[in-house]
Amino acid sequence: MHEPDFSQGAAFVRGAFVPIGEACVPITDWGFLRSDAAYDVVTVWDGAFFRLDDHVQRFQDSCARFRLDAGLPPERIRAVLAHCVRLAGLQRAYVEMVVTRGQPPWGSRDPRQAVNQFYAFAVPYVWIADEQQRAQGLHLSVSAIQRIPATSVDPRAKNYHWNDLTMGLLGALDAGADSVVLGDGAGNVVEGPGFNVFAVLADGSVATPAQGMLEGITRRSVIEICQSLGVALHQRALAAAELRGAREVFVSTSAGGVLPVTRIDGQPVGDGQVGALTRRIVDTYWDWHRRDALRTPVDYGASA
Ligand code: PLP
Are 190 and 147 a contacting pair, CB within 8 Å? Predict the structure, then answer.
């Protein structure tokens, strides 16, 4: 019998821990067939989860909005996530928890009869921007594609309804940009593939969309950081024109934190350099990873 190799990552699939390369979902699971799932992503930085309780709480809220049941209490979810990290031996990790609809009995199309399934995995930390993009700022494109409206799919429930984001991203990459932000069909931007968006306006205040997007946990950190720095932050509709004319622009995501944007559709944002306030927020975001109140250290010696 060979020892399982968790060096590339570890997953929890229907009750068992397996190497990431062996983790799979049955083809008939509605999570696969219908993107019928809720999920969350929490990170581990230098041996500790960042804002673990906030992510597990949002995960439970997402499940409730989609009438999904993880079938595990929050403390068990936290223990499963920690064990995935421990098995993979990761000090810096990208950790995902998922509940899928599962499948109803053969012949039934009644989602109430489906047996929901819980999955989780830990892999090395994921950045949505490479080192150069982080240093020089991202080139963002504003897409003509509208983000799925909140009246169709609740964006506050973290979900896999990403075709709009993926098609938008493909268009942006084809046009030579690094990523994309989608709008609400009324001239406002809402969010991008995996991130929230912020503009620093001429008066030094910060604006970020209030509706039509996932309420990111990193977005929450940015809101709290602005409070602590004494910077006014407004959650309100953010017009694409305001974004283009902003002094500074940045995005927020668990997969990279706070990331500067220095070009939009080929045009410089402000003077085209990473802005001073953006830099302060980036630095504070990483400083906050040392705050005990926001850290949950992983016990690398414990058992499942
Ligand atoms: N918006 C969408 C659509 C996302 O998928 C994500 C995260 O993956 C975010 C925003 C940012 O959320 P968080 O800061 O919790 O990672």
Answer: yes
